[in-house]
Design goal:
The protein is an all-alpha fold and 53 residues long. It has two helices and no strands. The chain starts with 10 loop residues before the first helix and ends with a helix.
Length: 53
Amino acid sequence: MKEKIIPEKFFTDAMHIATAAVYDLDMIISWNFEHIVKQKTITLTEKINIQNG
């Protein structure tokens, strides 16, 4: 949320991404084309995950 990749009103979308990252899941399956599977979101969250190990 700090990076503002996902708008604050879609906190649960950000939680899904964070949960997948924390538990080292290989993928998230979603129909949410507005936020979760948007190419920009994928690229930016990947960058943050790499920075944070």
